[in-house]
Design goal:
Strands 1, 2, 3, 4 and 5 form a 5-stranded antiparallel beta sheet that branches. Helices cover 33% and strands 26% of the residues. The chain is of the alpha+beta class. A hairpin with a 5-residue loop joins β2 and β3. It is elongated and about 120 Å long. The protein has a domain of 158 residues: Nuclear Transport Factor 2, Chain: A, CATH 3.10.450.240.
């Protein structure tokens, strides 16, 4: 029996070839470099298949609308509250506006270190250290007290037990000069000896509770980052 020529089969074969050709032209062929599909519900996914915002880096393909996704500016209380009394907020705001590099926490840490260094240097009579930390008139006062002590042959030994609190009590910006008043509450041992070495004041078993209120100053925005002690007062 002879094979029968089926025109329908031929037509469907031609159509199948045509459809395959069109699909290939539209979808292309796989090369092995294709990007994985984007998952819009994945927090870490991105359209290019890479991890979005790795390590907290900014997303280069994200355009933020003004005012969207940015934290609100910190209030004065939020900015300075753990460092200062409320009376100092306005002054600290003014200082920060005049000197964008001003860092309240760094200032308090530095003031704390300066306080301990100045007190112990004064006890030792170390004028060289004091000269770099004090305003000229304050240095003259400290130096005069050291001189009077030396004339009597007295020596002072001061040891810090602790610095319990360091708080900004007041702040001002006057004609470009920042002035910040700091209240220090500390415990220390102070011993004064005469020229023979005998104790004439204090003692190793006597811990003093001391409150010092010191004012530091610096020209806002100056290249020299150092603050100078410009005023002191104390209350035991």
């Amino acid at each position: 029996m002879h094979d029968t020529f089926d025109i329908t089969t031929v037509v469907f074969a031609i159509l199948a070839i045509f459809v395959l050709y069109k699909l290939k032209s539209v979808l292309g062929t796989r090369t092995g470099e294709e990007r994985p599909p984007f998952d819009p519900f994945s927090r870490s996914g991105s359209a290019d298949g890479k991890t979005a915002n790795p390590g907290g880096a900014p997303e280069s393909n994200v355009i933020r609308m003004p005012g969207v996704g940015r934290p609100a500016p910190a209030s004065s209380a939020e900015r300075w509250g753990v460092l200062a009394d409320a009376d100092a907020f306005a002054g600290l705001d003014a200082i920060a506006a005049a000197d964008p590099a001003f860092d309240g926490k760094a200032f308090v840490d530095g003031a704390r270190s300066a306080y301990e260094l100045i007190v112990t240097s004064f006890a030792r009579g170390d004028r060289d250290v004091l000269r770099g930390l004090l305003a000229p008139d304050v240095f003259e006062s400290f130096s005069g007290a050291i001189g009077a002590r030396e004339a009597q042959g007295e020596k002072v030994e001061t040891t810090f037990v602790s610095i319990d609190t360091t708080t900004i009590a007041d702040a001002h910006l006057r004609e470009g000069t920042a002035q910040i008043t700091v209240r220090f509450a500390s415990k220390l041992i102070s011993i004064t000896r005469d020229r023979t070495g005998a104790i004439i004041d204090g003692g190793s078993d006597k811990i003093l509770d001391v409150i010092d209120v010191w004012t530091f100053a610096r020209q806002a925005g100056a290249k020299d980052p150092n603050w100078k002690l410009v005023a002191t007062e104390a209350a035991h």
